[in-house]
Every structure is written in structure tokens, then in C-alpha cells.
Design brief:
Length: 171
Amino acid sequence: MSGTYPAVMGDRGRLVVPAELRERFDLHPGASLVDNLLADRRRSAADEDMNLFDSSALLCFLQDEDGSDIVERKLLGGGACSAVNWSETAQKVRGRGSRDWGLSRGLLLSYEVTVEPVRAEDAELAAVLWGAGSGLSLADRLCLATAERLEATVWTADAAWGTAGRARQVR
């Protein structure tokens, strides 16, 4: 069979998936096609390192800015955000008035993003990371410290972070 198939709706308003595709994707009658495909994408993304998202990366995604496609691809594997960066994201979404935080929150949680508490060891490492003129805020340093603890790749849209260590730029 070719790579394209006709879309056929069954008697109960459900998409009829051709037998060849059901077999290839191990779909059983009544199985949710969307859930199955998302599970496959999450399994492949789970083979990668854990992802931690800075508020700038989450805002980039929520506002559909350059780099949002990279953030979305990484969100498919789940990931985490420190409580400080979660708060910063909520504050900036609410402050701009252009988006409802409840909707943004729901969207992020639908990607199975977890909010990681800040621990004393994170706070202490953040203090060590402080440097006059570094361009890194307390929230930035707490995010980097949380990434170290979790051994996670941290995604940011903040150019001041560079790409050293665990930091990765989304644009």
C-alpha cells in the first residue's frame, strides 16, 4: 500500500483505520489513535535526557516565537520546570494580559510538565553561581542549579546563558 489512505468515517462517527495501518501501529479495535501516536512520540523522547525548561523557553512556546518548535519537540518528552520559573512564567503571562494563565497552565500540563520544588542544595548552588555582571537572575541560577541536581538538559531562550554545560538555546 502507498503512504496515503482515504479517510473513512464509520457508522458511529469514528475514523476507520485500514487493517495494514492497525497492524503496523499495533492498534486494537477501540484504541485511541491519538493516544497511541502520542505515547510512541513520548517513548522515543523519553530515551533522551530529562528536559528542564526555563521560563523564557516556556514563554517562547506559549507566545509562538522563534524557537517554539524546538520547545514543543522537547515538551513531547515531558520534563520539568523549577517552581521559581513556573512562577515567573505565570507572572509574565498574567502581566501581558494577552493570555489567560489558566489556559497556558493547562496547555503546559497537557505535555506532562512537572513543577520541581527548589531545595536547599539548589539555593546554595545558585548562590555559588552568582557573579556581578553575569546577566543571570536568581531565577536563572536556581534553574541551572535544579538542572544540575536532576542531571537535566535545561532549555532557555535567554542568550545570556550561552550554551555551556547543561544549557541549550532554543533560538
